[in-house]
Amino acid sequence: MRIAKELVSKFKTLFGAAPRLFRAPGRVNLIGEHTDYNDGFVMPAAIDLSTIAAIAPRGDRKLRVHSMAFEQTIEFDLDDPSPSPRGDWSDYVRGVALSIESAGLRLGGADLMVHGDLPMGSGLSASAALEVAAGLALCRVSDVTIDLTDLALYCQRAENEFVGMRCGVMDQFISCRAVAGCALLLDCRSLEARRLRIDPRARLVICNTMVHHELASSAYNERREACERAVALLSGPLDGARALRDVTQDQLKHFAALLPDPILRRARHIVSENARVLQAATALAAGDLAEFGWLMNESHRSLRDDYQVSCPELDLMVELARGAPGVYGARMTGGGFGGCTVNLVEANRVESFKEIVGEAYKDATKLTPRIFVCAPGAGVGELEF
Ligand code: GLA
Predict the structure, then answer these.
(1) Which end of the chain has fewer CB atoms surrounding its CB within 10 Å, N or C?
(2) Is residue 171 in contact with ligand 1, taking CB distance under 6 Å?
(3) ω before 262 within 30° of 0 (cis)?
């Protein structure tokens, strides 16, 4: 693998040691968007783009971290009494180290170098992959045994508390626990995951709009607040509702008058999306690709109109996909405001899909989209080379 070779050779030059390598994948989410931080259901799969962390232990408590993409080395001390975020890529690595240590595990210092082929800001979870690869690498060279679900939770906490992005657990969980050939139906409350085989008659095709709108992270935190507000307003009449996960579509209709706009729309997306994920899991298990595709389309509509996290480029990409032959369904994937769409396409129509959608998107936007088939891969692990 080219990236692994490059990393090893650069690592030796910069740090003068032979590293171990740990690889963590990015993800695509088939359905279940913004439901994870509402204790709900999601259906992600790992993709074959990833981040690799090369690492060698040091004798002290320093972390020296180099990013090949940013050509930058940052150094910090694990014993720094008041660590503060720098507002750059290194926060993900430092945040994870701090989060692991605050769980009572003790890490040793290390030299780390990170690189990957996940495009940043494209909604394929490059940041979660960085956290997970660095987290497992740090644990392994420190002889710390870690359960991969715990690692996912520590990585999420790093992002919530150190980076300041109040994300749910989906991205970190799938990067840790993905199973090759499968998507996972994940219950974000219990963290129970069920494997769902991807039907061999279809392919998951990812289309990158090549745009990323800046408001993504502030709008994300705002959406999360709106959900919390909805729960607060509903928890009186719906005794025991701790999260929107606990509210049914009928209950929401019944108590709609309690929720001002746009809180009602936000809640309507979450409550209906949770129901769609469960229906989609049933459809996939039964081989009903038409139903699965219809649910993907409905999910996009709800994200666009009720949750309002889509953008013109995502809507265009979805419209173009739906016009191409052999498409069961198309929707935005990830947080939104740019990034990628996910499409369920008949296996023998993938080439024409790429051509038709690629050309039409380019004509309309002057941007060349990246369109590729996703082969669901495994979660984080050490790379033997
Ligand atoms: C981002 C977050 C996830 C999830 C998605 C939306 O990727 O990191 O936790 O909320 O957005 O589904």
Answers:
(1) C
(2) yes
(3) yes
What is the distance in A from the centroid of ligand 1 to the CA of 75? 29
- Of 36, 39, 111, 171, the catalytic one is 171
Phi, psi (deg, nearest 5) at residue 214: -60, -30
Q: CA-to-CA distance for 181 and 238, rounded, in angstroms?
A: 40
**Domain spanning 197-374: which superfamily?**
GHMP kinase, C-terminal domain (3.30.70.890)
Q: 11 CA to middle of ligand 1, Å?
A: 32
Q: Whose CA is nearest to atom 10 of ligand 1?
A: 34
Contacts of residue 154, defined as CB under 8 A and 6 or more positions apart, other chains included, come to: 96, 99, 100, 103, 135
Question: Would residue 171 show up in a list of annotated catalytic residues for this protein?
Answer: yes
Ligand 1 and 159: CB distance under 6 A: no
CATH fit for domain 2-196, picks 3.40.640.10, 3.40.50.2000, 3.30.420.40, 3.30.230.10: 3.30.230.10
Block residue for tokens 């690869």: 133
Q: Is the pTM of this model over 0.85?
A: yes
Å from CA of 28 to ligand 1 middle: 10
Per residue in 266-287, pLDDT (tens digit) is 999 999 999 999 999 999 999 9
pLDDT digits (tens, 9 = 90+) for 109-139: 999 999 999 988 889 999 999 999 999 999 9
